Amino acid sequence: MTTVPGRRSSTFTRLLRHGFTDPSAAEQLLDLDALSSVRSDPVLLEALGATADPDLALRGLVRLAEAEEADERQVLLDTLVTAKPLRDRLLGVLGASEALGDHLARHPRDWQALVTYEAVDLHPGVAEFEQGLADAVDPDSLRVAYRRCLLAIAARDVCGTTDLAETAAELADLATATLRAALAMARTSAPADAAQCRLAVIAMGKCGGHELNYVSDVDVIFVAEPVGGADENGAMQAAVRLAAHLMRICSDTTVEGTIWPVDANLRPEGRNGPLVRTLSSHLAYYQRWAKTWEFQALLKARPVAGDPELGAEYVEAVSPLVWQAADRENFVPDVQKMRRRVVDNIPPDRVERELKLGPGGLRDVEFAVQLLQLVHGRSDAGLHSGTTLEALRALAEGGYVGRADAAQLDEAYRFLRSMEHRIQLYRLRRTHLVPEDPADLRRLGRSLGMRTDPVAELNKAWKRHTSVVRRLHEKLFYRPLLDAVAQLAPGESRLSAKAAGTRLEALGYADPAAALRHLEALSSGVSRKAAIQRTLLPVLLSWFADSADPDAGLLGFRKVSDALGKTPWYLRLLRDEGAAAENLARVLSAGRLAPDLLLRAPEAVAILGDPEGLKPRTRNNLEQEVLAAVGRAAGAESAVAVVRGVRRRELFRTTAADIIGSYGTEESPAEPDHGALVDRVGSAVTDLNAATLSGALRAAVREQWGDTLPTRFAVIGMGRFGGHELSYGSDADVLFVHAPREGVGDEEASRAANTVITEMRRLLQLPTADPPLLIDADLRPEGKSGPLVRTLKSYEAYYRRWGLVWESQALLRAEPMAGDAELGRSFVELIDPLRYPREGLGEDEVREIRRLKARMESERMPRGADPTLHTKLGRGGLSDVEWTVQLLQMQHGWSVPGLRTTRTREALSAACAAELIPADEARTLDDAWVLATRVRNAVMLVRGRPGDTFPSDGREMTAVGRYLGYEPGHVGDMLDDYRRITRRARAVVEERFYGAA
Questions:
Q1: For residue range 579-602, what is the model confidence (pLDDT) as tens digits?
Q2: Nearest in space to 317 (alpha carbons), one of 182, 451, 221
Q3: What are the C-alpha distances in Å from 442 to residues 22, 101, 108, 127?
Q4: What is the maximum span of the chain, computed from C-alpha positions, in angstroms?
Q5: Which pLDDT does position 491 carry in this prediction?
Q6: Contact 205, 217 (CB under 8 A)
């Protein structure tokens, strides 16, 4: 095939259009003699393009054609282009499975197994597979026959002739036929052993459940009895030899590869126990020694080979024990530990790619279904199925699982199993990991029918289904707890109060009896409210259990429900607004502050269901609301009561957004940018306090003077208030400035300003259900000894004559917050030359700032506090970072406009941009400042009161850790990380602030 140099052939273009990723290589393959008779047939290219991997399918076809003799090759190719069913099956397999392509290259005649399908071939059972294996006389020929049967199963699968459940059942039936053939070979090779014993093979796991994978260990248990009057010891030894030979036939690797490992480790005592036992020995073990997981495993026990009567006797004997397992002590904790151990054993870099064992994976579905089977199967024989999808359907039909939940789980499980099947089919290797290579993902996506953008479509569908499983499997897990307190009809099953309490305790509830009382109060009765609660509570309980204080979460939910239970919108909000219930659960169980704010006005829960509800409101919007409320109020106290109510509601909005952003939800992960979280909290609380001061100022003025105060008046934010870096429990640090109106004397103006300040303070600290806002003016000239309020001229005179360098430093954070805007701007114009001195600071001033910082470190650290963990004054903490940044601002702010900001992080970023500090050192300081601020926020959220150190209480410490992203049991890691990050910051401070280069 020749083309003009530099131009692509028409074949190249067609290959690209049909999905080939390497058209050049495909052209070369099509030019080979093996495909000469069909290379230009458009039907072939069309069929190749319809496969999961056209390049792989073409390579496999070439290898198959080259392996055939010339005459047989022509038969193959003629049949291929004339018979669409064969074309779809053969190329479909070749495009999905490199391993089956290898098999066909070694055994080219096996393609004929795909030529015609009789009706029975469409859904073969054990008998048909036994017939397919009948000619096998030794392990090698059994492997070849097994692969030939597997080829037909795969063809039906990739062409859509069978669905996931049918394919898995066929694989299990093929395994059954293979075990029977292997046992027959073992018996033939040792007739004396065969004559001494009756041996039955019991399939377990996915084979027993009739839901096998393409490549999986086949789990079995062997049971045997002596024949006639044979000696029991001799008979058991013979049975062991037969069983071991069967395992070798299937598991050994030969020139024809292996079939699959036969795993007998689910037997009593595992690998330490005898390979074969008598029925009575099995029963004695299960009745006395068996653990919970062994009964869970027996759910899937099914006799598949050997003596059918003995197999049936075994299942009949152990079945009652399985359905009594849920009555055993520590049943649910045992199941939980098994689940947790499986997840914990996954390497961290593989968890997100684990289809089977990862969060939201296949094991989650299987565990949840099996648990519900064991709990409710005691009294409902309809649940006694070893097949996951059949059991799920039975649970839904019996009312143990909601039909919608069951349908979603069914869909997710089928999709995830289909992914697993196609991943394993490619190389016939036992794996449950989603590949990372884009080519593998492309083939996987196309094999599942995704053709537009296979990789993106696959990832989206995969994440969606795992999210569904994550959300639902715990909901199914917790549902029986409600049965324990529900009014059930006679004959219906329920957990005993003791069993339910034990389960709750294992889930982290410190007071299970109280938890059960809350559940009963919330869900008892036949009202619509109780019915909705029964729907909500299972998933809420799982979210509470995921927190550091499940008891507080459940108690808070009961209180909110009691307060709002009669309002029609509350339960509807939680039921219908997808994120609202989870958001509420996170907020109620994360600490004391947010629930306290909510319970003072429970209607604020509506915020959690509004997609825009967690976004902070702007200062302009807040001021409009509070000033309008003041305008409508009858007096100052009632006006500020409304203003403080707005503040409490908005504090709740901010705390809720912070908690949800830090914890993450099932729909949206935790915010990865911790600096953004800190900035949002600081800005939101600052805007809220500024609006609150505006409202209090307007109310105080209206009460005594009407619309106009005799003097212009402004509130200047200082410290964290001026820096937009307030925490939840911060006071409002301020300065007050006034300017007498025309015709008003200085004394009258000063008296009016002081009266307003006193009234504002009083109104904002009145004892009410809403949190107070404390106004702190101690940063004013002369501190507590100086006047509360000054005129601009007084400030100017003071700073010109008496101002100290620390006061200029404090003014770096000064920003107008409320009152007369023009007066506020005038104040800023007054202080700018002080805080950003022209030509920067002199050596004496720098020395004085360093002396003051060193003195503060030695004198203000609380007695007994750990300096490595004190967020404000400790090593590498807030003070260290802020003083370092402020020194840069005072030295260079006159020449670097970006440094003229009241915000620490903005100033640090500007210093880095101006190359005043290296980027790595700026990042180190920023990381430490953000972490210390988050710890302070966490302490306030958890304890409900401010603190500068980590709490000493274990549960509170765990809650702080959860807010910071640490799982339970990793408090030590949290403290180590804090010390490491702040130690590095302190090293930068030593160099950049103290000059210890």
A1: 888 889 999 999 999 999 998 888
A2: 221
A3: 14, 19, 28, 37
A4: 125
A5: 42
A6: yes
The pair of structure tokens assigned to 605 is: 């829960």
C-alpha of 103 from chain center: 41
Instruction: Give the pairing type, strands 711-717 and 732-740.
Output: antiparallel
Looking at residue 985, its pLDDT comes to 97
Q: How far is CA 632 from CA 627, 637, 648, 698, 927, in A?
A: 9, 12, 19, 12, 46
CA 875 to chain centre: 34
* Statement: residue 360 has pLDDT above 90: no
Please give the C-alpha separations between residue 354 and each of 339, 360, 363, 466, in angstroms, as whole numbers. Answer: 14, 9, 10, 11
Cβ-Cβ contacts under 8 Å for 388 (sequence gap 6 or more): 209, 211, 365, 366, 369, 413
What does the alpha-carbon distance between residue 455 and residue 443 come to, in Å, rounded to a whole number? 9
Buried b (16+ CB within 10 A) or exposed e, 913-943: eeebbeeebbebbbbbbbbbbbbbbbbbbbb
* Structure-token pair, residue 793: 């001229």
The residues pairing with 222 across neighbouring beta strands, listed in sequence order, are 201, 276
- CA-CA distance, 185 to 245, in Å (whole number)? 9
Q: Which residues contact 284 (CB under 8 A, 6 or more apart)?
A: none
Task: Name the residue among 729, 761, 768, 479 with its Cα closest to residue 601.
Answer: 768
| Angle of CA points 881, 882, 886, to nearest 5° | 120
Q: Considering only CA atoms, which of 829, 813, 760 is closest in space to residue 789?
A: 760
Q: Is the dihedral of CA 202, 206, 210, 213 positive or negative?
A: negative
What is the residue whose two structure tokens read 């806002």? 773
DSSP class of 816: E
pLDDT category of residue 563 using cuts at 50, 70 and 90: confident
DSSP, collapsed to helix, strand or coil, labels residue 776 as strand
Residue with tokens 């180590």: 976
Q: What is the distance between the alpha carbons of residues 764 and 607, in angstroms, rounded to a whole number?
A: 25
**539 in helix, strand or coil?**
helix
pLDDT of residue 528: 72
Q: Which residues pair with 525 in a beta bridge?
A: none
Q: Are 659 and 963 in contact (CB under 8 A)?
A: yes
Q: What is the pLDDT of residue 487?
A: 47
How many whole angstroms separate alpha carbon 264 and alpha carbon 593?
54
Buried b (16+ CB within 10 A) or exposed e, 960-988: bbbbbbbeeebbeebbeebbebbebbbeb
Nearest to 169 by CA among 216, 114, 208: 208
Q: Considering only CA atoms, which of 25, 22, 94 is closest in space to residue 65?
A: 94
Contact 425, 96 (CB under 8 A): yes
Q: Are 686 and 630 spatial neighbours (Cβ–Cβ below 8 Å)? A: no
- For 94, the token pair is 């070749």
Q: Is the pLDDT confidence value at 504 over 80?
A: no
pLDDT of residue 60: 96
The angle subtended at Cα 426 by Cα 409 and Cα 462, nearest 5°, is 30
DSSP 346: S
Rounded Cα distance between 274 and 733, Å, is 77
Q: Is 346 a residue whose pLDDT tops 70?
A: no
Cα separation, 688 vs 623, whole angstroms = 9
> What single string gives the DSSP state of each residue in 629-667?
HHHH-SSHHHHHHHHHHHHHHHHHHHHHHHHHHHH--SS
| Phi-psi group of 560: left, alpha or beta (phi > 0 → left; psi -120 to 50 → alpha; rest → beta) | alpha
pLDDT, tens digit (0-9, with 9 covering 90-100), for 692-744: 999 999 999 998 898 899 999 999 999 999 999 999 988 899 999 999 999 99
* Average pLDDT for the chain: 89
Which amino acid would we find at residue 243? A
Looking at residues 5-28, what average pLDDT do you find?
A: 81
Give every CB contact of residue 220 below 8 A, 6+ residues apart in sequence: 179, 201, 202, 203, 204, 207, 262, 263, 264, 266, 304
> pLDDT band at residue 578, thresholds of 50, 70 and 90?
low
